[in-house]
Amino acid sequence: MLTREPGGTSSGKRIREILLDKKSELSPWCELFLYLADRANNLEYVIKPNLEQGNIVISDRYFDSTIAYQGAGRRIPFETIMELRKLPAFNLLPDITILLDLPVEVGLSRLRSLDRLEGEAMEFHKRVREMYLKIADMERERFLVINGTLPVEKIHDKIRERIEEMLKIREET
Fold first, then answer.
1. How many angstroms separate the CA atoms of 11 and 28, rounded?
2. pLDDT digits 0-9 by tens, 103-113
3. CA 109 to CA 76: how far, in whole Å?
4. What global pTM score does this model have?
5. Of 170, 159, 157, which Cα lies nearest the Cα of 51?
């Protein structure tokens, strides 16, 4: 099952429009709560039901993005966001998080157009990247960090190898 945040449900798609629209006037706290609302709905209606059916769920973004973007990027206290992660609605962690890391300048140069978040200042994006790397360092067993400047085929191979390894271990248990 493929999903994304924001936008994994029909209401999430509407939340996504608000969050990414350059015309939206959102305080950091409003932005945080919109992302949390989307995640709560996505977990309830997409992620948990699929996991209960034995499906593999792949999500483009998840709680680590909240820590990086709203925590480091918007400077909402790290401790506050980590407390929110403990709430029953949000305490499901992924088995693996794949972080494609690359210099901020390279990442931004690859974009065709900029939404509300992508259009933020370079320092915002640097704080976000630094936080992602900090989280990956704190939770090494869950993260696979890949150099995003590698050729697509090499990135694909690294991801495939790790997933195959995980599936093999799961079959053996």
1. 21
2. 999 999 999 88
3. 27
4. 0.92
5. 170
